[in-house]
Design brief:
five-stranded antiparallel β-sheet; 10 strands
Amino acid sequence: STTINNALSGKQPLDETLTHLSGKDVAGLLAYLGLGEGSALPVGVPVPWPSATPPTGWLKCNGAAFSAEEYPELAKAYPTNKLPDLRGEFIRGWDDGRGVDSGRTILNSQGDAIRNITGTIGARHEISALYFFGNGSGAFFGNDEGMYDSVVIKAESTGKSSVSMTDRHIYANLDVSRVVPTATENRPRNIAFNYIVRAA
């Protein structure tokens, strides 16, 4: 009841209100009271929607331009008259001076990145031969046996590999997919929704 009273606050007198609502369906009643679908959110707020088609009064956040004359309130939120393109994107809270993600402005896009991956792999040489560790750990691994320009690298019984000093073709490999899932982008686990924005 408190919500209804608050919604009715500032509306026209009771008799005019009843006249206005005469013949309205439930959707019309809720719209008049300011309790319709999405009305709790201000114009311009993007929300995840579980359908490819947005409801009436909402637009997809697909980078499209819109008319300021048709959507004046939306133009206040997006003065460029262009919606952000949130297809395939995550929303991140603006840093606002905190120092976690500094140097950015609101609606600024950011490319993908990962923390640096570093490591070492041991090697040694003698006068007659060059040795390296063929058994790396984690994402690192060496060539236990390989061929380069008809020069064969053989694995010794010690677990190391050797090659003549005159050849000097030795490789240490890094393959992160040996220890973590990989793809063409960096991403957390997620569920796909359609970002839409209240336009009016």
